[in-house]
Design goal:
Helices cover about 65% and strands about 0% of the residues. It is mostly helical. The radius of gyration is 19 Å and the shape is flat.
């Protein structure tokens, strides 16, 4: 299916199709390997979270920041 064909679908149809694709991938016996850079990103994020300087926002604070 091409992108122009996909764009002809309604948003509801596209979302439902994505759900079906995701569901099919979740039930595969063989899982794809994560790229090596994923581990690097997760390690860096963990360091940031564990830092004494880490600041956490509530959902409402985050929403206000990006309005």
């Amino acid at each position: 299916m091409s992108i122009p064909e996909i764009k002809k679908m309604s948003i509801q149809e596209r979302l439902k199709t994505m759900e079906h694709i995701w569901d099919s991938l979740c039930h595969e016996e063989i899982q794809p390997e994560s790229p090596a850079w994923h581990e690097t990103v997760l390690t860096e994020r963990k360091k940031m979270i564990d830092s004494p300087d880490a600041k956490f926002l509530t959902i409402e604070q985050l929403r206000k920041r990006y309005r």
